[in-house]
Design goal:
homodimer, 180 residues, mainly alpha, Arc Repressor Mutant, subunit A, two-stranded antiparallel sheet, 8 helices, 52% helix, elongated
């Protein structure tokens, strides 16, 4: 399995649609259906993004999600950390302390400080995290937006509006909250 | 599970002992026992390191492994790639082509080139790999060596010599090759 999982991939693709200020407040189900991915899978991602202060849930029957802050201030690292949690690149097992010549207990010099192998892995992890921190959601959305023809954004807004209208009171009484 | 697994951790710790030119030619079992880790687990790692040209198996009953090239020319990336194989940080599923407004097939503009999300992940992967490529086995061994007292290296050599002597003809007839 890849280190950065499909939860991040799905979450990121959903967030890209929310960068458009005129996208409304789509539900996680709307965003999943817009992209042809599993609604139940996406529904588990949004509470994590909300907890991390990346999205905000809007109240009401037609409520859904919107970005909680400027997309230029949301980095890929923020999103990866929100969805994946604390997940190290390398999990040091402190093998250095088990050397047979130490007998029953390792001397202090052998286990003090960070293991040199672990330290090198931490430098690689920092390099990866620094790169993710330098990428903003706004920048990625702009890159995607430059490829799309002008009418594509309009078509997506219309599609999302139709979904939101379907959530109007009396239309779909069983779908009463933002995350379904 | 961490992205860089315990196979890399065990392999790297074994390789550190081989940097000492006077360590002899320990078997993978000797190296595993020296470090208190599973010999059968370590035995699976060495063929990968040999295939990648990082270690060379010495022939004969007392044969074992030695480095195949200068440890200053062996990077952490060489070792990670040898043991982990081709393992991407992020596995793009091309979600961009599934947008509901496209209907049955995505237009060419939507799927041409690398997905902007994937491209950002590839930059993070490159940053991580560049960092691993900048770390040499020799440098890590020197960092470890600076912490150890002078008699530690002698004790390890004596321990490994004892193990190699145990593999002499007539002593342990069932252990006849380098990797056991």
């Amino acid at each position: 399995m890849a280190f950065i999982t499909s939860s991040v991939e799905y979450g990121l693709h959903c967030l890209l649609w929310l960068v458009d200020p005129d996208c409304g407040q789509p539900s996680s189900r709307d965003l999943a259906e817009l992209q042809g991915v599993s609604p139940s899978f996406v529904a588990k991602i949004f509470p994590k993004l909300e907890k991390a202060g990346i999205v905000r849930a809007a109240q009401g029957v037609r409520g859904g999600y919107r970005l909680a802050r400027d997309p230029a201030e949301i980095s890929l690292l923020d999103i990866v950390d929100a969805i994946e949690g604390d997940k190290p690149l390398f999990d040091c097992q402190e093998i250095r302390g088990r050397c047979a010549v130490f007998g029953d207990s390792a001397p202090r010099w052998a286990t003090q400080g960070v293991c040199a192998i672990h330290a090198a892995m931490l430098r690689a992890e920092t390099a990866m995290r620094d790169s993710l921190a330098a990428e903003s959601l706004a920048h990625i959305a702009a890159t995607v937006g430059r490829k799309a023809p002008a009418d594509f954004t309009r078509e997506v807004r219309t599609w999302l509006d139709g979904k939101a209208a379907g959530r109007a009171p009396g239309r779909t009484p069983r779908r009463r909250n933002a995350s379904t």
